[in-house]
Amino acid sequence: MRLLEGKTVLVTGGSTGIGRAAAIGAARHGANVAINYASSDDKATSCVAEIEALGQKAIAIKGDVADPTTAGDFVKHAVAEFGRIDVMVSNAGICPFHAFLDMPVETVDRTFKVNLHGAYYMVQAATRQMVEQGEGGAIVAVSSISALVGGEFQTHYTPTKAGVHSLMQSAAIALGKHNIRCNSVLPGTILTEINKADLANEEKRRSMESRTPLGRLGEPEDMVGPIVFLASEMAAYVTGAALLVDGGMFVNLQ
């Protein structure tokens, strides 16, 4: 079953990690895809190639989501190429791990601008286009288990992910009258570039695995099903929801 047949899907942070998996996964379900990426030209090109090999169309647009003008530019290019937008997957994010007491101002500001402000502007730009089209749409924002729990070296990161979760709740109310659904996914520990250095510590990695009832850390591909579901008509009556995708880590208090 191709759940996104004929749809146009936009993915931010689409050259690597969860964004890349979501972009390719959307194509497997019949979507044409536009990806935004910040710096990885070769990886963006290879992502487009993988999508095209599946028989779908794809473009990659470079831009920093922390810049408010990037959102409008991304939407404009996608509409010029595909004629419309049906789904926005707001995924771009960073997490430069750092202790709280000596956290640099620049690190805090950059994390908020990319993770929260970037999501806000991308969602706003996409939904403006959807409202103009008049046929509804779907937003899926990649929040995090960190929206619900703290982290010693993530005091700058966890508030942004709580903010993304909250943004989807408020946007669901604001946009329901336009038949635009807004939901978030909350990944647990997924093996991506964002935590590669942190999990290079084998002891820490084994500890994280032991806390996960399913016995392993997540892969980017584990996020594809939940994202595609929320983007598709199978979730036609789902909005303002948050779906944990964490192998059970959140509920394991023992």
Automatic annotation (TrEMBL):
Protein's name according to its UniProt entry: L-rhamnose 1-dehydrogenase (NAD(P)(+))
Keywords: NADP, Oxidoreductase, Rhamnose metabolism
Keyword check for NADP: yes
GO BP terms in the entry: fatty acid biosynthetic process; rhamnose catabolic process
Gene3D superfamilies reported in the protein's UniProt record: NAD(P)-binding Rossmann-like Domain
Domain Ketoreductase per the UniProt entry, residue ranges: 7-193
Metabolic or biological pathway: Carbohydrate degradation; L-rhamnose degradation
InterPro entries on file: KR_dom, NAD(P)-bd_dom_sf, SDR_fam
GO molecular function, one term: quinone binding
Signal peptide region: none
Reactions it catalyzes: L-rhamnofuranose + NADP(+) = L-rhamnono-1,4-lactone + NADPH + H(+); L-rhamnofuranose + NAD(+) = L-rhamnono-1,4-lactone + NADH + H(+)
UniProt-listed Pfam families: adh_short_C2
This enzyme's EC code(s): 1.1.1.378
Family assignment from sequence similarity: Belongs to the short-chain dehydrogenases/reductases (SDR) family.
SMART domains named in the record: PKS_KR (SM00822)
PANTHER family, sorted: (3R)-3-HYDROXYACYL-COA DEHYDROGENASE, SHORT-CHAIN DEHYDROGENASES/REDUCTASES FAMILY MEMBER
